[in-house]
Amino acid sequence: MRLTIADLKKGEKGVITDSSSEDIPLKLLEMGCLPGNEVHLLQLAPFADPMYLNVNDSFLAIRKETASLIVIEKIDE
Amino acid sequence: MSKQLNVALIGNPNTGKTSVFNALTGLNQKVGNYPGITVDKKQGICKLSRGVKAHILDLPGTYSLNASSLDENVVIELLLNKNDKDYPDVAIIVSDVENLKRNLLLFTQIKDLKIPTILVINMSDLMNRKGISLNIELLETKLHTKIALVSTRKNSGIQELKQLIEGYKTISTESCLDTTSIDTDYFQSLQKAFPNQDLYKLWLVITQDANFGKITRQELDISKFKTKSNQELKRLQQKEAIKRYQFINAILKEGQTIDRSKATDLRSKLDRLLIHKVWGYVIFFIILLTIFQAIYDWATFPMDLIDTTFASLAEWVKNTFPGGGMVTDLVAEGIVSGIGGIVIFIPQIAFLFLFISILEESGYMSRVVFLMDRVMRRYGLSGKSLVPLISGTACAIPAVMATRNIENWKERLITILVVPFTTCSARLPVYLIIIALVIPEGSIIGLNYQALVLMALYLLGFGMAILSAYILDRILKTKHKTFFVVEMPNYKLPLLKNVVITVIEKTKTFVFEAGKIILAISIILWVLASYGPGDKFNNAESYVETSATQTIYERDDQIAAFKLEHSYIGIVGKTIEPLIKPLGYDWKVGIGLVASFAAREVFVGTLATIYSVGSASEGENIDTIKTKMANETYADGTKVFTLASGISLLLFYAFAMQCMSTLAIVKRETKSWKWPILQLIGMTAIAYICALIAFQFLK
Questions:
Q1: DSSP letter string, B229-287
Q2: B677 falls in which pLDDT band (50, 70, 90)?
């Protein structure tokens, strides 16, 4: 099954494998949402949206809608 | 001859770029506008040695050279236009020592434009605490640049930076990496088509058009070179970003070591509390209450002071230039009270920006955006709409301007359209007098009726803003995609200097932007109220009956009232009377409504004149106006101000679009008359209908 950032639970980590969807804003790519980079889901707002992440050493919040476009592989700690 | 040295400060948001700007220029700065748009253009002068002056331009914060907002677009437009008078001789990229990796992305892009570039690594005082060490020499060599380690908090490194600026000619203009390798064939054919142009610049122009389409000052016609679809371009841009990060990562691997065990984690500790599912909201609510307290309580003292000062100034003008006739009256009643009407808002606006800039500087505001986004989105707004909505409680003008960082056009537009529903401070004097007039005193479970009504009006304003946003969200169709990325910056103590400068600058902008219009309208209103057609206006004295019991002052007041009735504005009031009759107002209230278009609080002053309270300042006479209004009756003896007409009037003021200054700002921010006109008609219609229903139901 295809996993995305939206499937992560609080505290979990993953590695981005694909962020080529056309609907991902370029700004997000430039902040480091690129294949090979690690994502750490730090916190969730109520209703699990937006999501507070650490990607590529950047701390940012994105909406679930966008998060569900970024494909990852989960890292088991 | 002293050739001006142009320096552009460029950097990601939250890197302390503005602090560096303030450190370089001190108070030697001014804020203007870029032509045609309302993005603040901050410039300042920095004195270097031997009398050389550097002209420093603080460009809006941006994450990359691919613009996604109006602010960011300014940066790219300037850097692509060598003929611009502000085109930099040297660029300073401000980066934050903790976010070096991401900050360097923009750095490599600027380097590719072959502009001499200095890299400022700011917040260097945090290096120890965060366990970061840097090999500056290595970084300078690999990045083909000069580096200044700066701490604006500790005030270190600024002298070194000034020296680097002076020696800008020795800085390499070599680019960092070769972008063209992302698609060699494409770039080769591009070069063939435009043999004299820089390839990276061409690439930027082409991709900007794909993303934003706002590059104006371009002589290049790239339309004949559209050989790639937008999707293909996007893919190439992703490749470009990956390539840049590969380059940056390789360099940082050698040049930067981070000992994470040393890092103290303030962020996660504070986040755990400030964006907690319960406590986060509680804390935000308390902060909101404090802001309201400041705006409506602490600000009253300076406001009263301003009010009495301007009243006595107007009086002074009148007494000092007696018999000056029209000019004296114009100065005293039109200009002085017009300016007074603007200055009176300064304390509230200053308090508001004080809080907002502290919240923004500290990094807290992004947490609020995070907490509120989901709730706001349900109504077609964004988490970022919150700052405008809070600002709206002081004044809608700065609130509309605060919508600029909302990337999504639809969410931004909806925010702009609904913000004037929030209860701005100009409504307050109107609310206070009407409430005092029609709402009985007394209390229920210790809560004062009048206070409850006032609170209800605030909630009503917010409620209407949210409801209209919800409706607009359903109606408006836009092709823009949703788009929401918020950086969650590190928490830091706000720098006093930055806060003070922000408060001064924002307040100044408000005074001059809104001031012009309020002043112009006060003068027009003064003219309309001071002149009238026909004998009844010009010979008012002979029409007003004298009676033995009245004092000379009472007679003067009566004449003034009679004159106003037959002035141009009085005629306007009488003309609209049939229209406002169903709402429970007479022509006198009509005059107040018309006058309110300058600024709503003018209503009270106008009524004071109409009810012939005379020339005394309104503050002292509030009880007199109240008594006169309470005794005001129609010809048949029924009272004008009853519970029904009072509530109707309160609702009208709560919802109607009665502020020309706001309309003008909305026009500028949306670049079209369509939206302010829609706002004017829509809001006034809602106000009319609500007031009508309330009056007809209650009467």
A1: -HHHHHHHHHHHHHHHHHHHHHHHHHHEEE-GGG---HHHHHHHHHT-TTHHHHHHHHH
A2: very high
* pLDDT (average), residues A39-50: 90
State which residue of chain A sits closest to B98, comparing Cα positions.
A57
Place of tokens 């200095």: B118
Question: What residue of A is the nearest CA neighbor of B484?
Answer: A62
Pairwise CB contact (< 8 Å): A22 & B102: no
**Which tokens go with B664?**
């003008």
Beta pairing, strands B40-47 & B117-122: unpaired
- Global pTM reads 0.80
- Buried b or exposed e, range B658-673, using 16+ CB within 10 angstroms: bbbbbbbbbbbbbeee
Q: Chain A residues contacting B, CB < 8 Å? A: 19-20, 22-23, 25-32, 34-35, 42-43, 45-47, 49-50, 52, 56-63, 65-66
Alpha carbon B254 to its chain centroid, in Å, reads 44
Task: Number of helices (H) and strands (E) in chain B: give both, helices first.
Answer: 33, 12
Q: Is the pLDDT of residue B622 over 60?
A: no
HEC assignment per residue over B130-180 = HCEEECHHHHHHHHCCEEEECECCCCECHHHHHHHHHCHHHCCCCCCCCHH
Q: Residue B693 pLDDT more than 90?
A: yes
> Distance (Å, rounded) from C-alpha B396 to C-alpha B445?
34
Per-domain residue ranges for chain A?
A: 5-75
pLDDT of residue B615: 45
Residue B323 gets the label, from left (phi > 0), alpha (psi -120 to 50) or beta, of: left
Q: Is residue B626 part of a domain?
A: yes
- Cα–Cα distances (Å) from B147 to B24, B91, B439, in that order, read 16, 12, 67
Residue written as tokens 């390789």?
B250
| pLDDT of B617 above 50 | no
Please name the residue that has the structure tokens 């009263």: B304
Pairwise CB contact (< 8 Å): A45 & B482: no
Residue B593 is assigned to a structural domain of this protein: yes
Do residues B350 and B376 make contact, with C-beta atoms less than 8 angstroms apart? no
Residues of A in contact with B489 (CB under 8 A): 59
Between CA B244 and CA B112 the distance in angstroms is 11
B405 lies in some domain: no
- C-alpha span between B2 and B53 (Å, rounded): 8
Residue B446 lies in a domain: no
Q: Which domain holds residue B660?
A: 535-698
Domain A5-75 class in CATH = mainly beta
The domain boundary, picked from B209, B230, B245, lies at: B245
Stretch B650-666: mean pLDDT = 90
Place of tokens 């004092």: B551
User: Last residue of some domain: B225, B245, B265?
Assistant: B245
A-chain residues near B235 (CB < 8 A): 20
Answer yes or no: is pLDDT of B551 > 70. Answer: no
What pLDDT is stored for residue B215 in this prediction? 45
**If DSSP states are collapsed to H, E and C, what string results for B51-116?**
HCEEEEEECCCCCCCCCCCHHHHHHHHHHCCCCCCCCCCEEEEEEEHHHHHHHHHHHHHHHHCCCC
**B82 or A10: whose pLDDT is higher?**
A10
Give pLDDT, residue B217: 41
Question: Quick one: what percent of chain B has pLDDT higher than 90?
Answer: 21
Residues of B in contact with A46 (CB under 8 A): 277, 371, 374
Contact of B598 with B521, CB cutoff 8 Å: yes
C-alpha B132/C-alpha B130 separation (Å) is 6
Question: What's the structural domain count of chain B?
Answer: 2
pLDDT of B32 strictly over 80: no
- Give the tens place of pLDDT for each residue, B185-242: 888 888 887 777 788 888 888 777 544 444 444 455 666 666 677 778 888 888 898 8
B75 or B540, which is more confident = B75
Confidence at residue B364, expressed as pLDDT on a 0 to 100 scale? 92
DSSP H helix total and E strand total for chain A: 2, 5
